[in-house]
Every structure is written in structure tokens, then in C-alpha cells.
Amino acid sequence: MTKFQILKNLAVVSFGFFSLFTAFISISNLQTSLNIDDGVGPGSLSIIYGALVLSCMFLPPIVIAHLGCKWTIAISMTGYILYMGANMHAIWALMAPAAVLLGLGAAPLWSAKCTYLTQTGVWYAKITNQSKDAVINKFFGIFFMLFQASQISGNLVSSLVFSKNNTELNLTDDVLQGCGANFDPTQTTNNTNLERPDQNKVYIVCGVYLGFAVIAAVIIALFLDKIDLKKDKNTKPSLSLLIGTFRHLATSPAQILLIPLTMYSGVEQAFFSGDFTRSYVTCSIGIWNVGYIAICYGIVDAICCFTFGRLVQYVGHIPFFALAAVLHGSVQVTLLLWLPDPDMIYIYYILAGLWGMGDAVIQTQINALYGFLFTENTEAAFANYRLWESCGFIFAFAYNDYIATYIKLYVCMGVLSVGMMGYTAVEFLQRSKAGKSYDISKN
User: Coiled coil located at which positions (predicted)?
Assistant: First the structure.
């Protein structure tokens, strides 16, 4: 490919995912507030990531070998389309099958995307005579900038459609005491903010999201160029694929050490979309504010993804991971101590923005780190990435309806601490292996 073709394809992949996750991220943010009857909302999210775990073990190498990266991405998007449609009538009979199909397609989707960006990034580095790690970081930074920007468009839709006048908030102090870290989903409450919106508004929101998902698949199918990875098209489903997935894990100390941090990526995203949105925002200031606050999160996340992806080549990975640990750790302590107050709405935005800044580090730097450390085995590495990140999601959504929010915050703190210790060990291993004293991002 020429430089122009590579950059064009980077734009196509990024805008395709922007459109797809305009729908999915936004509907995910609403699941614990919108579809709480019989636990269908968080339950369907847990099913998605459970199916994704199984998919990570078997499907990515097979699907990519037979379809190639382009058609793997396009076809995998159909599961997201079905899930958007199922949300129009959110019952288990529709949501569960749609969630399974989405989860099965998600692992090939993300593995194909990561393989595509990594491979084209390597080609671009050769053409421009740049460092592979620097180019891969830039590509992932650009991708995640647009990916996180999808929260702006999607969440704006939900807030505008569900909008109400804030003067309708008539919560007593006793009701507010049950929000925030004190929120307990097992306890009944007379909080009117937690009631489901009018069904006609739900149809409008889900219809718009369905349209975005369809547009995403069309963008990829029409405009993304194929790349030849010289994969064996005779690859068939077998236990050897499962063994191969874990062989990479068993033979790579760095992969093992990165498991807790990779799981934290899922835990922290699940906390924001499932617990912060319900326990703090919906509970105290209404579901119509979820979108606006998530937009703040998305804008900060998008800007930081782009900025951090470019700056890492100058300062290395270490300062950014340290920044993420400080940001998320500080916000988690604040959320433990702070009682949500509708009269201080700016605090919701500040906390969401700081969480988004930390998430930008987690998303860009872990992806880039995997791409750099495991360049020779990207499919297995990124399959492991999605596997362990999905375990974090499953873990978080599985207990969503059963324990109080303050316990979930302690879980976040614990996983973050262990994850950062594992990353630190990876840095020491890489320095020892290279026999050099500078950051692995500069090798």
C-alpha cells in the first residue's frame, strides 16, 4: 500500500468503529438504568462478554484466515445491529440471543481491527523510516480518539430524547442518601428517577442507534481495502486453536503479568457505564443527564487518546500508566466519600472527565503495548487481550445487581493496584531482556 492508502484505511476503520460504537457504547451506558426489569440490562451485557470469552478462544484466527480482516470486521458488525434492534423490546427472549451473537462476533471484530492497524502501521513505518512502536502508537491514538468521540454523538441522542426539566427533581434528603457509594440495587426505593422512560422515547433512541450500526457495516464493506496476511484458509475449528490461544499465554511471562491490568480495563469501563451512570447520575439527577455527563467523559477520553498516542514516543509508557493509576485511584476514593448533590452538578462532569482521562491511558497504552511486545503473534496476543478484558467485564456485570456500590469501588481499587504491579514487572523484564536503561517504548 502507498502512504495515502494506509492513511485512508486508518480513517475508514476509525470512522466505521465510530459509527458502530456511537450505538453500542451509548446503549451500554443506559442498560442498568433503562432495562432493569428482571436484570435484563446488566444481564445481557454479562452474556455479551461471556460469549466474547468463548469467541476469543476459538474464532479470531479461523474467521480472519477465511474472511480476511476486512470482511471479518464487516460481518462481525451484524451482531451489534441485532442487539440494537432487540433493545426496542428488551425481554430475555430477544436480548439474550442477540447478546450471544454480538459477543461471538466481538472477538473477531477487535482482533481483525488490531491486526489490521498493527500490520498497516508496520508498513507505514517502513515506508516513512519511522519506529514501529511510534507509528503503532500514533495509529491506535487516532483510532481511539474517534472511537471515544462516538460517545458524544450517541449520548447526545439519548439525553435529547429523554430530556426533562430539572425542576422535576423532587428528591428528599433520605432518598439522596441512597445514591452514590450507598446505592444498593437489592433494596427497594421510591426514587422516581429510577423509573423507566416512556416507551415511545425508547423506540426513538434505539432506532437511531440501529441506524448508526447499519451505517458502520456499510462503511467497512464499501471503503476498506483488503490486506493479504497469507493465512492458511484450510484452518478449521479444533481444540488445537484453544491450545494455541493459551500456549501464547503460557509461554509469555509478559502476557501473564499483564492479565490483571487487562482485566482492569474491563472492570473500570463496566463501573463507569454500569455503576457511575446508575448509582450517581440516574439516581440523583435523572437518566436524561447520563448522556450529557457521558459526553464530557467521551470528549476528554477522545482528546487524551489522540494526545497520549503522540506523546508516548517522547516520554515512554511509564509516566502515562502512573498518571492513570493516580487519576483513577483518586476518583475512586472521591466517589467513596462524596454524596451526590443535584445542586453541584459540575462535580459529576469533573469526575467523569478525570475518569475519561485515565481510561484514555488504559485504552491506548495497553493496546500499543500489546502491539509492540507481541508483534510476531498479534492475533493470539490481541485475542488474549479481549479474553482477559472480557473477564473483567463479566466479573463486574455479574455482581452488578447484587452488591452495593462502595464494595464495587473497593474491587476497582484492588484490581487497579495489582494491575499496576504487574505492568511494573513487565517493564523490569523488558529492560533486563534488552539490557538497556530506557523505557521499552523507545526500543
Answer: none
Give the list of residues 6+ apart from residue 68 with CB closer than 8 angstroms, or none: 226, 227, 228, 229
CA 106, CA 94: separation in Å to the nearest integer? 18
Q: Which three cell numbers stand for residue 195?
A: 423509573
In angstroms, rounded to a whole number, what is the distance separating the alpha carbons of residues 319 and 258?
17
Q: How far is CA 18 from CA 12, 13, 27, 34, 208, in A?
A: 10, 8, 14, 23, 14
CA gap 341, 167 in Å, rounded: 14
In this prediction, what percent of the chain has a pLDDT beyond 90?
A: 50
Amino acid at 377: N
Q: 67 CB contacts (<8 Å, ≥6 apart)?
A: 75
Nearest CA-CA partner of 421 in 261, 312, 267, 268: 261
Cell of 41: 440490562
Q: 434 burial class (0-12, 13-18, 19+ CB within 10 angstroms)?
A: exposed
CA–CA dist 378, 371 (Å, integer):
7
Q: Which CATH superfamily is domain 3-223+238-442 in?
A: MFS general substrate transporter like domains (1.20.1250.20)
Q: What is the DSSP letter of 225?
A: P
Predicted confidence (pLDDT) per residue in 106-117, tens digit: 989 988 998 899
Average pLDDT over residues 17-39: 89
Evaluate if pTM is beyond 0.90.
Answer: no
Q: Report which residue type is found at 414.
A: G
Cα 422–chain centre separation:
21
Under a CB-based contact definition with an 8 Å cutoff, are residues 110 and 88 in contact? no
Domain residue extents for the chain: 3-223+238-442
DSSP 326-353: HHHHHHHHHHHHPPP-GGGHHHHHHHHH
CA distance 438 to 434: 9
pLDDT, one tens digit per residue, over 382-422 is: 778 878 998 999 989 888 888 999 999 999 999 999 999 99
17 touches 109 (CB < 8 A): no
**C-beta of residue 367 within 8 angstroms of C-beta of residue 258:** no
**Three-class secondary structure of residue 130 per DSSP:** coil
